[in-house]
Amino acid sequence: MTPAEQKAVDLLERVVAQMPHAEHRSGQTEMVQHVANTIDTGAALVVQAGTGTGKTLGYLVPILAAGQTAIIATYTKALQDQLASVDLPLLQAACADDPDLAFSWAILKGRNNYLCRQRMSEIETGHDQLALTDAPRDVAEDIRRLVAWGADSPSGEMSDVPFSFGDSAWRKVSLGSDECPGASKCAFGETCFTELARANANNANVIVVNFTLYGLDLEQDREFLPAHDVVVFDEVHELEDVISDTASVTITGRMVANAAETARAGLSSQKLANALNKTAKELDEVLSQFSGQRLASPLPDDIDAALRNAGTQCDLILEKLRASPSETPEHLRATAAVSRMLEALRKVLVSGSNIVAFVSDVRGAARLTAAPKRVNHVLGTVWQDTTAILTSATIPPGMPKRLGLVVEDDAIVRVPSPFNYAKQSLLYLADDLPVPNAPDRAPRLQARIRELITSSGGSALVLFTSWGVLRDTAAALNGQLGKGINMYVQDDMPKKALLDAFRTDTTSCLFATRGFFQGVDVPGDALRLVIIDKVPFPAMHDPLLDARREDAGDGAFMIIDVPMAAAALAQAAGRLIRTATDRGVVAILDPRLSQKRYKRAVLSGVEHMPETNRLVEVEDFFAKQRV
After folding, report:
1. Is the pLDDT of residue 289 over 60?
2. DSSP structure string for 436-478
């Protein structure tokens, strides 16, 4: 064991000894050693850490033992919350008495997660009465409450608000980066909640962000996040899609119209703003003709012309704004918004072999997106300049290479779960149901879900790959699950409240979609059964995936679709066993797994579970748990 590894392992033992239910995990120790060695050598490490490994301490402990400054980038808010409320406070307490290990930490989010003091001031002083007079009564009341709360809040952060409020109200009291002129040009720059959060992060040793914020920092040439020695990407199987999103450019007619309206407040003449608003309507009409289509390169003439027209008008507006000596908040916001709009227009007009352009329909509005097929070039500077730790319970084949890392699949460190799945779990594959989309599937699917829930006595997380199937199934089974078994359905209440209710009502069932495939931690008897309605293959007509499939050629299904489905399935199944005493069944109600050659590849993330296709074995499993 190297000195770096020994120091990290010693710190791990000290931390574990302070935990309420101290538990030595050999896999966690193994991960700590690998991470410590990677930090010592400055390389990159990819770790597949099985459920229950304790991977957050597995990477945090060696980072602190090495005295490094690190950014922890996560995919889900649930993991951010766990780091902030459990892991980091625990580590901080363990290190507090050692001057060589003492550290500080911070959570940092995007600008639109914080109240804007300038907007609050405008509303409070009556300078922006439209925010209240034009808003519905409930929205206006939410705005007033948010402004009042913000006056005394130390953070101004959305998740700290102690009451519920609507998105419309929050948008009135917050600004995105597109409109913010920056602290140096704002009267409230010194007390800006976002800037205070950034200053706090700049003084911390460990900064927790999400993938999106890290990706946006890369797009801004590393100007937003503090300098750091180490970056950890936790739940890294989702990183490729998020980085592709942050490197994408999206334009809608509404976005152009919003830029025109923001510009209007900073212009003495409304002629140019009116012209840009007219172009916004024309762009919306043109884009709607291509809804659902992938676009050729270069772009179709009428889309190209509308975008260039909008760009010319933005240029003219900026000339007028920059020629004015005014530095009112409205003028500064107008300059920032139109500048960002012009930048987006120019980016989407640049074609290239790595760019996929397509038009989608989002709530009745046409949206033009230009997205990269590959993100290795976006992440290149990360691998060159920073020690990187990439970890997840599931690492899909070929993922490191797609991210631009020269790491073969057989070089991935695989730390097994400490749980005894042979005794604790059962994987049930229903091979006697109609295939998805069969006309007689719905009633058979609903009956099987009811049978499984009857066997488990409730305590089930029922996951669906489509909202339509979820709604139909929930409606059919409402009140039909058995005495004392309540049904909770996604969007009945906020996610945190929903999970709290599910944990507390220990025989209840929760019906949800893919948003609950990960980030759900319900240990104990409250969750004994996970049902997945079908294999979660990615959408067949996604323009970006279609482009990647074309590049992959004849083997696209096994190269692109199957690994994505396997990763999603493993994440969903991973909700079941969270502690060494948990017991339960994962049921996949998709008969294709008994018929298709991809069965073993799709099930690669759950192959540690004993498998059956007999419902009676599920009933026997639960019967034995009740003895």
Report:
1. yes
2. TT-TTHHHHHHHHHHHHHHHHTS-EEEE-S-HHHHHHHHHHHT
Which residues in 187-201 are b (16+ Cβ under 10 Å) and which e?
Answer: ebeeebbbbbbbebb
| 454-499 pLDDT tens trace | 999 999 999 999 999 999 999 999 989 988 899 999 988 878 788 8
Q: Residue 208: which H helix or E strand, with range?
A: strand 206-210
For residue 121, the SS3 value is helix
* Fold designation for 3-104+204-244+375-415: Rossmann fold (3.40.50)
Yes or no: say if 83 and 207 are a contact pair by the CB < 8 Å rule.
no
CB < 8 Å & 24+ apart, contacts of 291-295: 291/359, 291/360, 291/361, 291/366, 292/359, 292/360, 292/361, 293/358, 293/359, 294/356, 294/357, 294/358, 294/543, 294/546, 294/547, 295/357, 295/358, 295/359, 295/368
Token pair for 127: 């300078």
Q: Which two tokens stand for residue 40?
A: 């010592």
Q: Are 321 and 333 in contact (CB under 8 A)?
A: no
Domain ranges of the chain: 3-104+204-244+375-415, 114-196, 249-371, 421-626
Q: Is 297 within 8 Å of 357 (Cβ atoms)?
A: yes
Topology of domain 249-371 in CATH is Four Helix Bundle (Hemerythrin (Met), subunit A) (1.20.120)
Distance, CA of 547 to CA of 371 (rounded, Å) = 11
Would you call the peptide bond into 298 cis, given omega within 30 degrees of 0 as the criterion? yes
pLDDT in tens, 393-417: 888 888 999 999 988 888 899 998 8
Beta bridge partners of 389: 45, 232
Residues, the chain, total? 627
Token reading at 47: 């770790």
Q: What are the structure tokens assigned to 314, written together? A: 């933005």
Any idea of the CA torsion for 170, 172, 176, 181, to the nearest 10 degrees? Answer: -140
Q: Beta-carbon neighbour count of residue 607 at 10 Å?
A: 11
Cα angle for residues 441, 444, 448 (degrees, 5° grid): 130
How many CA atoms lie less than 13 Å away from 343 in the CB half-sphere? 10
**Same fold: 249-371 with 421-626:** no
Q: pTM, whole model, 2 decimals? A: 0.85
What topology is assigned to 421-626 in CATH?
Rossmann fold (3.40.50)
In the structure encoding, which two tokens stand for residue 473, read together?
Answer: 């199934």
Nearest to 50, CA basis, from 496, 622, 608: 608
